[in-house]
Backbone:
């Protein structure tokens, strides 16, 4: 029972539940540490999927029932269906919100001076101009880039790593494929890429969720 209680306490702490701190002590034994670590792992995972709160009493009873071999209030099969439906609903809500936010951002950005919107919906702004050749879709290119969400969160940056990236011009998201063929070597552009030209409804894991509009500052260094 101690292991079960430690798992529940750890989850309760992470989700700011009403655990009485006087009844809890810092893990000391190997099993206490394993149990607490399991709680951290479980809670971090479900929180990352969008769950903001939990009924700790229900979790405690479920874990007790499984470990003690009691009849389950909800079967394993039904539990999987409940979880899939619930997290599917959360994902759909996040996608809808991201799409709405992205549409508003794109509309506002399109109205800014210097922003050009292509037929596909890609938006770009020329930050500085080069006079080199333009790549074709089968070329290998070397670029520096800085990728952000619409709220300014950086999700990837060759600039921050201090090392440019080299890849086929047709081996990236569609917004990049289109933009690279419009750019000349030496150009530095700011791209605003709608979700359908980026990672769409699937997202890309981590910070790039479903329906996300992406912003990149891209400098085309050379065609290899």
Residues:
């Amino acid at each position: 029972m101690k292991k079960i209680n430690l798992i529940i306490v750890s989850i309760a702490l992470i989700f700011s539940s009403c655990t009485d701190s006087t009844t809890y002590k810092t893990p000391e034994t190997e099993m206490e540490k394993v149990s607490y670590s399991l709680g951290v792992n479980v809670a971090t995972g479900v929180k990352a999927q969008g769950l903001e709160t939990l009924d700790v009493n229900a979790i405690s009873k479920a874990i007790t029932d499984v470990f003690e071999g009691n009849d389950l209030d909800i079967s394993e099969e039904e539990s999987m269906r409940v979880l899939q439906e619930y997290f599917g609903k959360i994902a759909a809500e996040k996608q809808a919100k991201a799409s709405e936010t992205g549409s508003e951002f794109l509309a506002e950005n399109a109205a800014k001076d210097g922003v050009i919107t292509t037929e596909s919906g890609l938006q770009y702004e020329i930050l500085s101009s080069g006079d080199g050749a333009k790549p074709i879709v089968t070329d290998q290119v070397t670029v520096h880039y800085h990728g952000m969400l619409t709220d300014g969160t950086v999700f990837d940056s060759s600039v921050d790593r201090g090392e440019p990236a080299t890849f086929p011009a047709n081996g990236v998201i569609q917004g990049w494929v289109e933009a690279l063929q419009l750019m000349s070597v030496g150009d530095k552009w700011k791209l605003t890429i709608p979700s359908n030209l980026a990672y769409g409804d699937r997202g890309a894991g981590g910070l790039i969720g479903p329906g996300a509009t992406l912003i990149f500052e891209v400098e085309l260094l050379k065609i290899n």
In short: Residues 1-21 have pLDDT under 50 and may be disordered.
